[in-house]
Amino acid sequence: MKITIALFALTWLGSLAAASSATRPNIIFILADDAGIGDFSAYGCKYGSTPNIDRLATEGMKYTRAYSGSAVCAPSRGVLMTGQHTGHALRRANQSKIGLLSLPPGQMTAARLLHDAGYATGGFGKWGLGNPGSTGVAEKQGFDVFFGYYDQKHAHDYYTDHLVRNSVDEPLPPSGNPTWEDYSHTRIANETLKFIEQNKDRPFFCYAAWTPPHGDFVIPENPFFGQKPWTEEVRNYAAMVALVDKDVGRVMQKLKDLGIDEKTLVIFSSDNGANLEFIESLGSTGGLRGYKRLLYEGGTRTPFIARWPGKIQPGKTSDVLTSFVDFLPTAADLAGVPAPKGVDGHSIVPTLLGSGQQELRESLYFEIYEPYFQQAVRMGDWKGYRLGTKAPLELYDLKADPAEQ
Ligand SMILES: [Ca+2]
Q1: CA distance linking residue 332 with residue 45, whole number of Å
Q2: Residue 396 domain-assigned?
Q3: How far apart are the CA of 73 and the centre of ligand 1, in A?
Q4: How far is the CA of 312 from the centre of ligand 1 (A)?
Q5: Phi, psi angle pair for 46, to nearest 5°
Q6: How far is the CA of 272 from the centre of ligand 1 (A)?
Q7: Core vs surface per residue 177-204: b (16+ CB within 10 A) or e
Q8: Rounded to the nearest whole angstrom, what is the distance from the C-alpha of residue 251 to the centroid of ligand 1?
Q9: Is pLDDT above 90 for 8?
Q10: pLDDT the model gives residue 95
């Protein structure tokens, strides 16, 4: 009992110290869409390099056992925003039989929490948790501004004639040619940088939910892989990963230029694993089993890198078991406010800052019903997977068998 109380006191003191020394950093969460862990050189990419994301890792902390929220877009983003895993969250697939399940009114989200703690909150890219007219729209869920795509299907169109700002369509003058100017990501990345610049003097949360390398696999020109003897789709996908890396570099340069590098935590991750078609061609799932939509490792294991100069010790790796459920409580910890009740995750600030006692979890749970019902649980080195409710439980020792053979 005494030991328990002492440990509790240490944990509490540790998190207090973490919150006060943290001094409310700006938080930038850059989320690639459908990129696999094998697409990034920090995690052993075989076909190219992502130097800016590498730099985030060498100047920050790289997580080696991190998971997204789910194996597809919307539920993964829902977990990131709400801190509830897909056994508790409303949204457990992109589609449901009764239509799109939007975030309900009054839902606690990371954006609302940070907004209420005095942060400026901006989202740029793909939302997917409620279309205009619903209760789930970003601006009703804690964002001062959201610019990009509300609807996931709309987000397939990189040469769209409009993007959406706070539920209002903004027509884009289409040139009729596939140019960088017409490419939606160009506008979304520029808006991301503009938001950072406009809010440089106050704490801000920037959710850069960029759409590349999700399909359609198109890019105005391909200076990165244009000469490779691959299919056009593969060349474009690889280039879209390179584009994300390039724009991560632009964000880092912007922080430096504004002199807010040391006030800003940058997190980079991807919302789910790579698509099937990029396994053989590029090795995008990093040799793991499965891919987008499956709860095997290839569907949910994700790059997760955090950089905060002067606070996170550079070049460190962490094998702490974490997933998107931890983002909301981590954000609360950083902002110095309590995490709300009913959240499944816990703060990883002790790991990030190397101070205090990291709460270690017993398990991570996932379920999804797209394309069919699956469940997965990670406990220590073990992984359980079940397809449907009648199939036998598959059990893997990931330490000995990382590819779930
Ligand atoms: Ca996705």
Answers
A1: 33
A2: no
A3: 4
A4: 28
A5: -95, -20
A6: 5
A7: eeeeebbbbbbbbebbbebbeebbeebb
A8: 21
A9: no
A10: 85
Ligand 1 center to 163 CA (angstroms): 19
Phi, psi values for residue 121, rounded to 5°? -125, 125
Q: How far is the CA of 156 from the centre of ligand 1 (A)?
A: 11
Q: Is residue 388 part of a domain?
A: no
Say if residue 176's pLDDT is above 90.
no
Mapped onto helix, strand or coil, the DSSP state of residue 266 is strand
* Residues flanking ion ligand 1, Cβ below 5 Å: 33-34, 73, 271-272
Pairing of strands 66-67, 120-126: unpaired
Q: Provide the sign of the torsion angle of the four alpha carbons 125, 243, 334, 263, taken in this order.
A: negative
Q: How far is the CA of 30 from the centre of ligand 1 (A)?
A: 13
H helices, E strands: number in the chain = 10, 16
Structural domain that includes position 280: 2-367
Tokens of 324: 């998107």
Threshold 0.90, pTM exceeds: yes
133: DSSP letter = T
CA 34 to ligand 1 centroid distance, Å: 4
Burial (Cβ within 10 Å: 0-12, 13-18, ≥19) of residue 374: buried
* Number of domains comprising the chain: 1
Q: How far is the CA of 33 from the centre of ligand 1 (A)?
A: 4
CATH number for the domain that contains residue 345:
3.40.720.10
Half-sphere exposure of 184 (CA within 13 A, CB side): 29
Centre of ligand 1 to C-alpha 202, Å, is 31
Residue 1 predicted with pLDDT over 70? no
Any domain includes 347: yes
The yes-or-no verdict on residue 354 having pLDDT over 70 is yes
| Structural domain includes residue 397 | no
